Amino acid sequence: MLADLSKATTIYLTPILMLTAVFLILFAYLAPAAMLHSQVALLTVTPSTILTQPGSNQQVDGPTLFAGLLGSCSKPNNAAGLTCTVPSISPTYNMSVFTSNTPSSVLAAPPATTPGFLAVALAFTFIFFFTYTAISFRHLMGKAGGFWEKPVVQRISAWIGISSFLIGKYHSCRLDSGDDLIRSLPGLASFLIIRMYFGKAASDFNQSIQGQGTNGPQLIANTSNAFTMVWVGYAFFAIPVIVSLAKLHVLATK
């Protein structure tokens, strides 16, 4: 029974987890400029009196910004519709909805190499999903399944999975006033650095508003739910990669 459960988990559950991971990471990458305009973002700026009037829970009207890797969506007040920038790997966020005393300059998009690099990692992820699923269901493909039975094909699939999970490239993110953080980063670590980048931008934005006191704009910046989607996506992604590596280990020890 345990063997049957293990087989069912490997064959049926892991491809579903991989498909879920693909969609979660893809949605986090495309939002909000291309899709899910007001539901998913890496960083949000929303109306709030928390910074200008500490302890206040008053509902206020004001501009809103949803920012992501490919662009932003914004609106001048709560009742207005969202206006989104054209998706681009070198986006410029639309800050025209903010007043002149809003420290919008600290909310710049990450370096242009970052979205492009992550697009390559996503392409590898799609390829791994296809090859991993084909290998899992090769017993249902008849003669065509023989191709996916070959150890070299399974080995290539595993390396594609590792590459899409751990692929790296040099790029730079400015985290404070004087230093650039430059590393050769894997796909998951790239999102960790992007989280640090937007976290620092939100912190600088909020500190600048607090410094203006009660005369500051009634806004607050926060990192948002796209990062949660990425963490869950990579947690699911890790399972098929581990299964692929385990299969390679078994083949190597025969």
Summarize the topology.
Blueprint: H1 2-30, E1 43-47, E2 64-67, E3 72-75, E4 83-84, H2 113-136, H3 145-149, H4 151-166, E5 169-174, E6 180-185, H5 187-211, E7 219-223, H6 226-252
Antiparallel strand pairs: 1-2, 1-7, 2-3, 3-4, 5-6
Keyword list:
elongated, two-stranded antiparallel sheet, alpha+beta, 5-stranded antiparallel β-sheet, 254 residues, 13% strand
Distance between the termini: 24 Å
C-alpha-based Rg, rounded: 22 Å
* Number of β-strand runs: 7
Percent helix, as a range, is 40-55%
Strand order of the largest sheet: 4-3-2-1-7
The dominant shape is: elongated
What is the arithmetic mean of pLDDT?
83
Which regions are unreliable across 5 or more consecutive residues at pLDDT < 50? 168-185
User: Helix- and strand-based class?
Assistant: alpha+beta
Count of separate DSSP helical elements: 6
| Biggest sheet character | 5 strands, antiparallel
The run of helices and strands is HEEEEHHHEEHEH
Proportion of strand residues: 5-15%
Question: How would you describe this structure to a colleague?
Answer:
By secondary structure, this protein is an alpha+beta fold. It has six helices and seven strands; from the N terminus they run αββββαααββαβα. The chain has helices at residues 2-30, 113-136, 145-149, 151-166, 187-211, 226-252; strands spanning 43-47, 64-67, 72-75, 83-84, 169-174, 180-185, 219-223. The strands form two sheets. It has a five-stranded antiparallel sheet. A two-stranded antiparallel ribbon has the order 5-6. β2 and β3 form a beta hairpin. α1 (2-30) runs antiparallel to α2, α1 (2-30) crosses α6 (226-252) and α2 runs antiparallel to α4. The chain is elongated, with a radius of gyration of 22 Å. The two termini are 24 Å apart.
